[in-house]
Amino acid sequence: MGIRSHTTATKAALALGILLTPPGNLGFTSPAMGQPIALAKKQADALNSYNNALGDFKTILGERRRQINSHQRLPNLPGQALYLARINVMSTYKDLTDALPSRIGRPNKFGIPPAYFDADSEPLVDEYRNLFDVLEAPPANAQDSPAPFKDVVDLGIAIARARGLDASSAEAAGRISLGLFFAETNGHQNVGNGRSNTYKGSFQTGPSEDQNGRRKWQAIRKTIAAFDPELIARDDKEEARAGDLDHRFNHWTAVRDGLMNAHADLFPQIPVIVKTLPNPIDQMKVFELIQIIPSPTRSALKSGSLLDYRISDPRIMGYLRNNSVFAFGQADRARTSASFRDILDAMWLFNQKFEQALSKFQEIKAR
Predict the structure, then answer these.
(1) Within 13 Å, how many C-alpha atoms sit on residue 238's CB side?
(2) How many CB atoms lie within 10 A of CB 14?
(3) Interatomic CA distance for residues 137 and 188, integer angstroms
(4) How is 94-156 classified by DSSP, letter by letter?
(5) How many Cα atoms occupy the beta-carbon half-sphere of 276 within 13 Å?
(6) Are 149 and 181 in contact (CB under 8 A)?
(7) Taking the C-alpha atoms of 186, 347, 320 and 353 in order, what is their torsion angle to the nearest 10 degrees?
(8) 224-260 pLDDT, tens per residue?
(9) What is the DSSP letter of 202?
(10) CA 172 to CA 192: how far, in whole Å?
């Protein structure tokens, strides 16, 4: 797989290099000289933790691949151990680069800051994603759309117009909606969820959220029919096609109901959000936070000072960490509070997905 091997000799040489650095550069000195010995031990401990985490990640990747290839029964939530192992690799690597900045290497193809990820480990993450493609494959009866990205944009724009937004703000709603699709599923239709038995489909909703979205959609259908009868005709066809199928596995209805459930009520705030956050990726992050921490995000939007609004509830901080925000390294994980500006900045792992959504949106707009 082209994965760099961390041999015993490499570990020993690296540890020895840490301990034998000349005085004044975190080297080996007598206790009377103060901190260098403690710092060298901290570096060695960080290196051991990272190598252990990397070994664990390789082990669970290999175990899942063998189970899949041999058609063995998988454990409940088979992706959870994979996810936690990947998080631990990045977290311990950040601790290592904090202790030993010289370990910060070259950029990687995933756009992860190099202080959090060793580019030599790219093949491991490729395999991680390949495994999740298998673990989260749509069911056999899922109903795809031939134009999944355009569907998301069209629905976002139509819902925004029904909520009274002008053309420019409605376009922003379509762009934001496409960002949510990429954030939730990497732009794949009708996927399952290797980490949850509840959330499924193109917008990763639970049954109650899907039902709530369907009810809300019914309430605005007539409004949309007045200015976009073609979209409503498409909706009628998709409803008929879905029939008794779980609507989360028809791409059109899954996106429609997902947007209506959690996001449509906040679309009227898009003009203010765009004014406060002119960066389209920041706008997408705000609406993704409606998926992750809905109540605090709504409170922040109502506060009149979105970026300064501060989260201090340990439970909410836990939800953020469970979604790869403040999840990497001891310093981040020790945080007890954060402003919304801090949170948006810490959502860098979403950047690549949102950039893909922006690129796809520009293609759709050009056509």
Answers:
(1) 26
(2) 17
(3) 9
(4) HHHHHH-GGG-----TT---GGG--GGGHHHHHHHHHHHHHHTPPPTT-B--SSHHHHHHHHH
(5) 21
(6) yes
(7) 0
(8) 999 999 999 999 999 999 999 999 999 999 999 999 9
(9) T
(10) 28
